[in-house]
Batch of 2 targets.
Target 1
Amino acid sequence: MRIELDKLEEHGGRFAHVYDVGELSLDDAEVRLVGPVEVSGRVRRDGNEVVLRGKLQAKLEVVCGRCLKPVELPISTGFTERFVRAISWVAEDQHELREEDLNLAVFDGETIEVDDLVREELLLAVPVNVLCGEKCQGLCPVCGIDRNLSNCQCESNELDSRWEKLKELQM
Ligand SMILES: [Zn+2]
Ligand SMILES: [Zn+2]
């Protein structure tokens, strides 16, 4: 979805879009869309800057950080992103001040690509270590068995001295 600035009122307007699964690619091997993505918000024009403020709702699928099972992750988040025309960005001398502002993007002055913004915000909303459940036992580091489903005999071997040495080396 694109926002064309010349189609907006002088000070801005509203935008809304629903992406079907498959309409938006997240370009991330570990995060998948499993439901439509709803985005809506307001566009505000302020001199050379354009500010998009809105909310996002989506259903993602990620893998459990311990057992690698797929986990559904509903996302509901708000965002504010500022866009600056490429030309004024180049002409400006005060870049040091701006670099701290992570929510600043450069655009061509005519259209804003909302897909990129949505993709970025969705990936940012994924927590670092998602678990299928707080009590997930994870995979056995020795034989790879899913400890939530069955047990193995590796536990007792973990006390093996060679294994202990290996663990020390890894730390
Ligand atoms: Zn798990
Ligand atoms: Zn095992």
Note: The mean pLDDT is 85.
Target 2
Amino acid sequence: MSLDFEEEKLFAELKKRKPKRILIQLPEGIKTKALDLQEKIEKLGIEVIFSGETAWGGCCISINEAKKFDCDLIVHFGHAQFIKSDFPILYIEMKDVLDLEPILKKSLASLKKYKKIGLSYSVQHMHDSDKIIDFYKKNGHEVILSGKKGFAAYPGHVIGCEYSGLKEIQTKVDAFVIIGNRFHSVGAALAVQKPVFLVDVYNDEVSDMEEFKEKLIRQRAISIDKLKQAKSVGIVMEMKPGQRFGSPKDLIKKFERADKKVILISMNEISIDKIANFYNIDAFVELACLRIAVDDFKKYPKPILTYREALVALGEKSWEDFLNEGVV
Ligand code: SF4
């Protein structure tokens, strides 16, 4: 596999926008490309600062950092546009250059029973979407792309916190195929009521997500039960401009009515150590990336839940509605 940094687009935009100093955000796996990028960009007479902060998603936009260091543009690699801001941001999505044919062929055995396929992919595979659709059509499937809804930037685009485009088409398809990695397919499986198959282009595997989904749902039920028992609750918000899932004010009132003590906590980024410092708090509800609670809960010393899970614990939403609407 090779990664296409979309240098043509990058340099065309830099020449057009003429920034003096830029803050570059690279996803975790490719921070090692910093030296190469700097060498090329400095040739345009532009100063470069690399953010050492995490850039898990398009929501992680370091506007405060850019302002602090007098940057006049943020260049964010690896994700599609997620937020609009007055501060100039250039999203460079990047492309994974792969030969998908062998793994697509492998997926046909798992998809035999399913005529109509709902298709989604992470943005790095969007440039291959026509080839993927043609492949499945030639092999007897109908293909419907997930809708461009909410934070999704394109039809077929999937991100870890936005599955409304998949939910929108789920009555029209027999199963979903997610081209990409485990993270997106776990979310998809939790979001929809149809079988979800991961076509894992990085590990050359095709996986049915059903068993994993069932396990995660049981774990979410345990966390919800623990929040019901909690006497004190911390509501945690992150400073990232693209994140705010649920209203803290609304939650405070509801927890107080349920006779729980509640505090509001802000963090640049939620971490196990920072949560552990509030060791006298029984449970936490995070209003940041909902995948922190759903995927990483085991790493935390106390139960950590999403906004919608908190509503279930508070009796504001039934468990059945929660599942029907999708866990994420
Ligand atoms: S909120 Fe989470 S899932 Fe959504 S873009 Fe940000 S890191 Fe990804």
Note: Residues 56-59, 82, 159-161, 243, 289, 291 surround iron/sulfur cluster (CB under 6 Å).
